[in-house]
Every structure is written in C-alpha cells, then in structure tokens.
Amino acid sequence: MSTSDPVINLQTLIRCPSVTPAEGGALSALEAMLLPLGFKVERMVATEPGMPDIENLYARLGSKGPHLMFAGHTDVVPPGDEASWSHPPFAAVIAGGELFGRGAVDMKGGIACFVAAIARHIEKHGMPKGSISFLITGDEEGPAVNGTEKLLKWAAERGERWDACLVGEPTNPDALGDMIKIGRRGSVSGKVSVLGVQGHAAYPHLADNPVRGLLPLASALMDPPFDTGTDNFPPSNLEVTSVDVGNPATNVIPARASFAFNIRFNDTWTADTVKAEILRRLDAAAAGSPLRPGRDPVRYEIAWAERPSHVFLTRNNALIASLSEAVENVTGRTPQLSTTGGTSDARFIKDYCPVVEFGLVGQTMHMVDERVALADLEILTQIYGTFISRWFDNALLP
Length: 398
What we know:
Layout: H1 6-14, H2 26-34, E1 40-48, E2 51-61, E3 67-73, E4 94-95, E5 98-100, H3 108-125, E6 131-137, H4 148-157, E7 164-167, E8 179-181, E9 183-184, E10 186-195, E11 199-200, H5 210-222, E12 237-244, E13 252-253, E14 256-265, H6 271-287, E15 299-304, E16 312-313, H7 317-331, E17 336-338, H8 346-349, E18 355-357, E19 371-373, H9 374-395
C-alpha cells in the first residue's frame, strides 16, 4: 500500500472503530503503514488493576541521533447518535471536499499526515539524518493511565532517548498555521464537602445547614483572581464544576453539601503551591462565614483528585523555530505560540524531551460529523515534511 497519500492513510485509520479502550484495528493498520518504510514496530500492552488493558505502539526508524519523536493517539471518543451523522462515523466518506469520520481531526488525521510526510521524505531524500519514532497510545481519550505515561517509561527502560517531540493534536482554532502549542497550564481538581447537622427545615435552630457554609467557601475559591497572568500564560482560573447535597426532600436540611472544582494554573504556581492557596482560602472563608451568624466555624473536608497535571513551557529554539518556519513556509502565516487549552499527553512527554504540539483545525473534534478538509490534509503533510527536514538540519548544527 502507498503511504504517501494522507487521505488514503486517514480513511484506513478511520475505518478502524478504535473507541477507547478498544484497539479496533487502528494500531495494526498503522503498523502495516510503517513496516514497509523500514520502521521497527513494537506493540506494548499496559495494565492496571481495575482498568481495561490498553494496546500501545512504539516504532523507530534509524538507530542514531538526533532522535525526533512523533506522539499521538489512535483511540477516539464514542460517535454518539450515529443516526445524527451525515455519513456513518467509521465509513470515512468523502463529500464536498471533506473527509467525514470519528477521529478525522482528533487525531487520526495528524498521524495520517505524519506517515505521509515521512514516506515522501524517504522517496525524495532517502532515510532521515537521524532517527524518527512514533509513540502512539490507545488511551488518550480515556483515563490516560495505561497510555503515554507507561509507554514512555517502557521505552525509556529499553534505552530509548529522544531529542525532541511533536504531538499531532489539533491545535489550530480556525485555519492551518494559526497556532503552535509550546506549553500547557497545570490542572488540579478536588471536592470540598461541608459538614452540617440534618434536621427539619421548620426548626433550623436544631440543625446546621451545610449549604450556608458551602456558599462562602465556593465563592472564596472563585474570587479574587489567583493572578493576572504571565508573559507566556493567561490568568489562572478556578471553576466550580458541580454542587450536590444528595437530598431529594424540600423540607429536610441536609447533613452534607459538596462541590467539585478544577483550576487551570499558570507558571506563577506549582501544583503544591496552588493547593496551599486553595486551603488558605477555604480556611479563611470557613472561619468567617457571614451566612452563619452565631455558629461555629464551617467544618469541611477536601479530597484532591489524583495525578495533577503540572504546568510546563518549552523553550527549545531548534524545535520551535523549525516548526514555525515550516508553517510559515507552507502557509504564509506566522503561527501564534500558545499555552492555551486543556491538558494533553505532552504533560508526560515534557519529562523526557522538549515537546510542542501542532495539528489540524480543531473545530469539529468530538462533534457529530467530525470532518477534515482534504486540502488541509495535504497542507499539514507538507508542513510536517518541511519540519522534518528543517529539524534535522537545525539539530545537527554545532
């Protein structure tokens, strides 16, 4: 099979129904694309008690440095109501100059383009001046426990070392060339439970309504702002994401009320210091709640979510410049260097090598009728091809 056409590559991948945690044939299809190009391909299964096993793939072309990694995932989110799609979500139908299918944008399209870019590079220039590897997980859209983090550790324990990484996530808001992600904010989540005394709503003096304590605690976490932002990051932001009292009766004061929250924080903070600031705010609000006159300070408990995401910023000039120059050369646009958006698997890769993210336009990801313009697949392939050549040239400079 020819792998130099990103459209054919993407159709092959979309037709594999790889909804997390199912491999769905997607990694096998990718392996079949890479083997003829000379890659050594290995499949690694990650396990964790209480969670489904996940298949992952690691492939390497070349044996010497410098070593460039392309990272991403073949798993996709569920298609939702398939009857709402204009075309079946795993049929990879082309209509009106667009390719429809779950994963077209997020992110089988990026993988398809990078494979095509390597195939064209080999056809035109021969083997790369160092090594290229694919680090592809099947657990990015899920809990991300048996995915990239374990695959990186597995590969590193076998002696793999990388000089730079490109993650092919959809980073562009409106058009190819808009944005390169050079870092990500950190993320911490938790749940605050306020303890009260259950009682009859008509006899509040015999009870202690935890909702009265919950309101000032939640408000204290959202205001005032944590900071005003930094040179490379927007202001940190905390959102209360759910509130629950578990009480279906309107005439009963509940015994407990809780709220969940998530904060996306910039490089003003670390996970530990932002947790300390959250506790400081909660303690101050609990001690001085104006909604509970004559009562003792609010009693609360907090449970932190496991595995916070840490803020990071990539400062590798060779990597950023190579990609920026490739984008500008192909599209004529100067990409914005951004740290916006949610977390990605780059949060794991940053501990092994410098990492940036660049892929397709993300407007339809996770939506019904997820789709990509055929023209964009060709443009992204050209960007990736130019980037590969420029990165190796820059990496080999003294």
